[in-house]
Write a structure and sequence with these properties.
GO terms for molecular function: ATP binding; ATP hydrolysis activity. Keywords: ATP-binding, Coiled coil, Nucleotide-binding, Repeat. The chain has 574 residues and is α/β, with parallel strands linked by helices. Helix content is 40%, strand content 18%. Strands 5-6-7-3-8-9 form a six-stranded mixed beta sheet, with helices on both faces. Strands 14-15-16-12-17 form a five-stranded parallel beta sheet, sandwiched between helices. Helix 4 (138-148) runs antiparallel to helix 5 and helix 12 (439-447) runs parallel beside helix 14.
Amino acid sequence: MTALLAHEVVRVLGGRRVLDGVSLTAAPGRRIGLIGENGCGKSTLLRVLAGVDEPDAGSVVRPADLGFLHQELPFDAGATVAAVLDGALREARTDLAELERLGAELAVLPEHDPSLPGLLAEYGQRLEQAEARGSWDADRRAALVLDGLGLSGLAPERVLGSLSGGQRGRLALAALLVRRPSAVLLDEPTNHLDDAAAAFLEAQLLALPGTVVVASHDRAFLEAVCTDLVDLDPAVGGPVRFGGGYLAYLAAKRAARARWERQHAEEQQELERLRHSAGVTAHRVAPDRGRTDNEKMGYGHRAGRVQQQVSRRVRDASRRLAELERAQVAEPPVPLRFAPPALVAGARAEEGSGPLPEDALLALRGVGVPGRLAPLSLELAADDRLLVTGGNGTGKSTLLAVLAGRLEAAAGGVVHRRPGLTVGLLAQDTVFARPDRTAAATYARAVGPERAERVPLSALGLLAAADLDRPVGALSVGQRRRLALALLVARPPQLLLLDEPTNHLSPLLCDELEEAIGAGGPGAVVVAGHDRWLRRRWRGRELELGTRPGVRPGTRSGVRPAAPAPDVPPDVRR
């Protein structure tokens, strides 16, 4: 096994320098996590490391046996589950077939045949490769991986177009784990994984002897798996590598930022002092400066010597000033800080609201969706904080779609809503009807000019100033999700529904979003998610959905929304 090496990699996309001289050494046995704000270049770096994209400058040395899982899956919608698994098992089966062929040739080859040494060397190389891949165990491993990722119930003849997005993502991950390459590159691998599947993935990666490089928002995953974290956010000397998991990174990140701010402030003070010193001294030595009274008596005697001393001080100060101006550290960029005016809006209690209590916004009575959601009853108060958990296929997304009014309840179930209730839904998939429009223009058209002026997109702390005028289609997946969140909080609804809200968001934004949700106050928030870090710190109510009759693990639980309005993505329509 060889190391994965990147040296001074530069990548320019859309006129923007996404990667600027990034170097990385990933030795076998190291599991490196790539973190940073959305749009900092994590996915771009993975694509360059994998050879999918070529760098504009710099070089990459990679092992020949490399596997890459990226966010846009490579499989055709018409391919079957069996075809995907056959492709994953092809290398192992080729190893075994070649060993059988070579063994048969060796069995009949005379002892003194001149081709014997070469044939033995080829057999030994193939045998070593098969052992490294675990080729004899590949079919059993495939069954274990499918079961571990919750896919054992998929029929081999199912076409990928009939699977949910989560199922397709898990199938691509399964195919990579079955292959067992010597270097693994993963882009957001824990999206769509429940607890059992995430724990299984962690165990698989911990057991790999080769290199692992992963871009992830999952703080629990980073803490459990990574030996090193590489922060791609701007820093004094470029990307910073931290040893340890997420908790160690947080402490080191804060300390590094404080050092940078302190160094910049001290240098600016020194620059100001040198400029003042050089300017004052130069004025004193200026040739047209008049002599003061106490200089006149000895001016002729001391003029030459004083002039030389003052000139030397001017030169020294100017030299130090020039050196410091060249070597000074850049000003630390203002970090993005999520600062919504409010996540949700309050709703006053209403008397005579029929079947609803005065402080309730919404109630479900025996509501279910056949094949997606088992019947349940639920009541949401005006200031509720509810976390919905459960394995894949238990109906979390379906429940949010029912609460949002996008999916009608089954016969026999009743949904009671407060009149005039405003609801906002952040769905898992963020799709904008006009990807050619800029983020700022999309925001202004969605929330209205007056609201956009009162609550500027730049003030929400979700997108950097440089990204506001970029087309939505050129933004990263995480940045598009940030924009969708901005459209919601710009006009806070009375009921905010968040489906896997931490997917694709940077870990630091996930922390800030959690703090905003947990702050309490008016309005109700319902979160559906697998995020283990969020769940450990949750302080509100919890609803765990389990397997019920009519709801099978692995069945599609997502909901296809109606066609979106021209400039409002379907996941933020009310």
